[in-house]
Design goal:
With 413 residues, the protein is an alpha/beta fold. Helices cover 40% and strands 14% of the residues. The chain has 17 helices and 15 strands. It is globular, with a radius of gyration of 21 Å.
Length: 413
């Protein structure tokens, strides 16, 4: 029996309400982080193994304990190689260097703009931290799993060997293993229920959201970042002054029921199954839609989103090559290459499964099963009050600032 420590921001079987998620930041700033950790939690339970899903910060404070209690550490990651993550990279590398266990990284990525460029003044420090982290990983495993070709080329340029870097995509796309249960409608129209995902710092999303609200009366914004959750619960605005972006509680997208914020993957999937189409800049918002059966198109705005879309053949358009005001939901759906996404999924799964085998990891999609036990465990806690449905706009307390703004609007109207 293998004893496996799986890194997650918050374990799927440990329910938490909206206030706890906000105050303890159980989503690592973005609920999209739960997508790849949830998929890994569902993937790894094998009848012959013991998987502990937990934040690794407390464990890594005592590497000797990890060595005593585990045989294997598994890290599902996202855009880890970036300047804003330097402290975590170096802290994790220092801890990994003290481990004697096997170590596997699932789907790590580098970050740059759409042309593959990162700020020059950040490159040296990021490269040094990345080299240290990857060396530590490779000393405890045969390879490192990366998101796509962009990250692989980045690591090869840093001096690592081709055989040490495996392109495997993102674990979240393999929530259902070799299957991708996508339901494709004949078309998408203006009156259909449409979901939009937004990175509130991407200025192009301002006019896209404006047009969406005008054209689609059933458009719903799915918030993902911790700041938007704080806005929904406390009325606290996000930083920035672009009135077209969803930064203030007075934005029309925060009208009652117009915005939802999922606190866990099952609730997120349940909501998306009621939508006809999803579009926007959030890569994991796009992926969660696809693995819920709802077609989605990514509006790519940087390398980390673009390389995953290219590897998994997720339909996308580059925001730097389109007029934001001219983006049309029916056209996004009609022009997407859905067969490339669906027909190639099994081959990509085979690559992922071979990577797991290379690392000595078994999974729950084999003849011995395992996913059923996880699903039953999730179902058993889904009725817990701490395992709530999505948070909706106007569902929480209204801040004094928001009440004042409403009063001013009433007096001026």
């Amino acid at each position: 029996m293998a004893r496996i420590l799986l890194k997650v921001h918050h374990a799927a079987l440990d329910p938490a309400d909206a206030t706890s998620v906000l105050e303890r930041n159980l989503i690592g700033n973005n609920v999209g982080n739960l997508a790849f950790s949830f998929a890994s939690e569902r993937l790894l339970p094998h009848p012959g193994d013991d998987v502990t899903a937990a934040p690794t910060g407390p464990w890594f404070a005592d590497p000797a304990r990890v060595n005593r209690e585990f045989d294997h550490v598994v890290f599902p990651l996202a855009n880890h190689f970036r300047a804003s993550n330097l402290k975590a990279l170096n802290r994790q590398a220092a801890a990994i260097e003290q481990l004697t266990t096997r170590f596997t990284v699932l789907g790590v990525g580098a970050q740059a703009d759409l042309d593959g460029n990162a700020p020059r003044d950040e490159r040296e420090a990021v490269e040094a931290a990345t080299r240290r982290f990857v060396r530590a990983v490779l000393e405890r495993g045969p390879s490192i799993g990366v998101r796509g070709d962009f990250t692989k080329e980045y690591l090869l340029d840093l001096g690592f060997d081709d055989a040490e870097v495996d392109v495997i995509g993102c674990p979240s796309m393999f929530l259902h293993g070799p299957e991708l249960p996508l339901r494709l409608p004949g078309s998408v129209g203006d009156d259909d229920p449409i979901a939009i995902t937004i990175s509130p710092y991407v200025r192009e999303m301002g006019p896209i959201l404006q047009q969406g609200l005008r054209r689609h009366r059933r458009l719903t914004y799915i918030g993902q970042d911790i700041h938007t959750l704080r806005l929904l619960l406390r009325g606290t605005p996000l930083s920035g002054d672009d009135a077209r972006l969803p930064l203030s509680p007075e934005h029309p997208v925060f009208a009652p029921g117009r915005t939802v914020f999922p606190l866990n993957i099952p609730a997120w999937q349940e909501f998306l199954r009621g939508q006809r189409f999803t579009y926007g800049t959030r890569i994991h918002g796009t992926i969660v839609s696809l693995i819920s059966g709802t077609p989605a198109v990514l509006l790519a705005h940087d390398s980390r989103t673009l390389e995953l879309a290219r590897y998994h053949r997720i339909p996308f358009v580059r925001l730097d090559q389109h007029d934001p005001a001219g983006i049309s939901v029916p056209e996004l759906f009609a022009q997407a290459d859905w067969p490339a996404l669906v027909d190639g999924h099994r081959e990509r799964w085979d690559t992922y499964a071979a990577f797991l085998e290379r690392h000595g990891l078994r999974h729950g999609f084999g003849p011995d099963g395992g996913t059923e036990r996880f699903d039953a465990s999730v179902a058993s806690v889904a009725t817990d009050p701490g395992y709530p449905p999505v948070v909706r706009s106007d569902a929480g307390p209204v801040s004094p600032a928001r009440r004042l703004a409403r009063a001013v609007r009433r007096r001026l109207s």
